[in-house]
Amino acid sequence: MKANIAIPTLLLTFLFTCVGCGGKTEKKEEGFSVTRTKSPEKVEQSAPENNEVPASQRITLDNKGVGQIKEITLDPEINTEMADAGAALFKTNCTACHKTDKRFIGPKMQGILERRSPEWVMNMILDPQLMVEEDRCAKDLLVEFNGAAMANQNLTVEQTRSLLEYFRTL
Fold this sequence. Notes:
By secondary structure, the protein is mostly helical.
């Protein structure tokens, strides 16, 4: 008699369980995964519009920076001997962080004199720490390039001027 009651009870339990879940079965996968989605409202709130030009693309030709170079006059003609010396210096001292034609750890050098004054460029090369401490554009570049501070290469004014002449050829 107990068997006659147990079997219908089990069948009813099974039936109610299947009807309760709507006949859906869960597919279990090995491992752990999380799928997160954001509502469109939250995405708009967390990504405000920012139309500010990045520091590496900003044009600040009137800014001479902070440092020993106050004024420099460039000859209309490029001094090829000086530019060659600058190219060699760039290759040995700068290519770990800078590329001529593309962004790398630091900004690209191509067109630098269309974005920065010659004085600013020389001051940045000669004393990057002072520039980051006191120059707004240098501070913004540090932020843009994830805190990768420019290393002081301990170059002379003459070597820095050679680099500047090389940048004129890019």
